[in-house]
Fold:
Amino acid sequence: MLFDQITPFVRFTAEQNMSNSWVNDGKEIVGYDHRIYYVLQGRGSIQIGQENYDLQPDTFIMWHAGIPYRYLSEKLNAMICITCNFDFTSQASQYRTPIAPSRPKEFDPAEILEKDVFFSDHKPFNKTVFLPNSPNIRALMIKLKEAYTKKQKFYSLRCNNILQEILIKVAYQTDDVLSRNNELVSSILDYIHEHFRDNPTNEEIGAKFGYHPNYINTLLVKHTKMSLHRYVIDCKLTYAVQQLLTSDKSIAEIAEEINIPDTQYFARLFKKHFQKTPSQFRLKK
Structure:
């Protein structure tokens, strides 16, 4: 599956004192859905599969269903965590209540709720994700716990949306290229949105930010799935839609504003993108 296809489903989340947890007996357990732990305070250690992980405040750790794990109880020190049991998709959302883990001998792999999860475009999510220092996720994890605990109207949808935001942040942190270049790309996109009417080129942007034009194009494709040309066209058409919906400008005037003076070409481009001509789109407002 692709990362942008995720539709997370939160089955359970809570703030837990892991020192008092019923599963804190040093023995392995296995979950039927995926797990997230976020450490609020204290320190401890957990074994997931064959790997040991030391946990401290602001540690985020996530692992897949079906992987045995156990707490190394001698290292727990009043560790308070926000835990979350979830699926990456909503295909098993009919199971809305918490599902207790099993001991390995009783565990039935056939009962895993979401099988064969594999991200072809973000491989770090195919294994245990361990972020020992993620204070930027703390507020969202607390918001997730509060939304689930209070269970106000539409709480399930809200929890799912919050978890999706958390997973997006984690995806950026676990992609070295995305993380390292996030600020640069944000600046480049700001520049494009300011100058899209002037048809900026990779050469122009490269000179502005001090990078080779080919690298600029690689960054844009990596972060937006679009070439610079396509991204500029998208900016122009988005602006055109706004004007069609909020102004009385003629179609020719709007096309001129976005530097597409040929109104017939503009109409063809618009229809290819939105399946309607500008005139048909305006009639629907």
